[in-house]
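Z., the sequence and structure:
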Amino acid sequence: MKLVYQGKTKDVYHTTNDHVVLKFKDDVTGADGKFDPGADSVGLKMEGAGKSGLQMTTYFFEQLAQKRIPTHFIDSDLTETTMTVKAAEMFGEGLEVICRYRAVGSFYRRYHSICEKGQSLDGFVEVTLKDDEAGDPPISDDGLEVLGVLSKTDYKQMKQLTKEISSLVKEELAAKQLELYDIKLEFGRDAETKEMMLIDEISGGNMRVYDANGEYVEPLQLTTYFLDNHSN
C-alpha cells in the first residue's frame, strides 16, 4: 500500500487494485482538550477512538447497503483498524454536509442571537466547504453551482441522501433511548461509475448524541452504549 494522505483522524492509502484503504487513528477533532465534531483541527487523542469509529462505521454502512443507499464501503478489518473503500472523486476540494436536528455547536455559535440552544431544527441540511483555514464556510446551492462545484440537481440528490442517511442513524439511536443532535457526512463520486455516494465514516466522531437525561455521550461511550447493547 502507498500512503497518499495523512488526515486529522485517518490516513489514506492506495492499493494495487485501485481500492483505497483508510487507517482509523485515535486522534479526534476538538479544541482545548475537548471533543468537537465540527472543529477544524485535532484537539486530543482518545485511546481506542479509531477502533470505536470503525466499529460504528462498519455497522452503519452495512445497514445502508441493505437499504441500497450508495456508499464507498467494501469491507473493514477491526484488528488493523482499516476500512477498504472504492476510490472516490471529490466535489471541488471537498464538501461537508451537516444534518442538524437541534441548535448546538457551530450553528448555535453563529445564530445564537435568533435561536435558543438545543432548539429543534427539524433535520436542517447545511453544506460547508472543507477549508480549515477559512473555518469551513457554509455555501448555498447557488454558490456551488456558480462556482462549478455542484449542479443544483446534484445538490438536491445530495440533500436527499443526507436526509435518508441521517434519518436511519437517528432511528437506530432512538431505539437505544439516544437522541441525535447533528451529524456530519461527506459525499463524492465513484471514480469508476461516477455515481454519487457516501464516503468517509459514520461514527461518534462525526455526530453529537445525547442520552435520555440530556447528557452528552462521548464517542467512545457511544460505541459501548450502542453496539455492545444493540441486541438488547
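The first strand starts at residue 2 and ends at 6. The mean pLDDT is 90.

Let me know what you think.
H.
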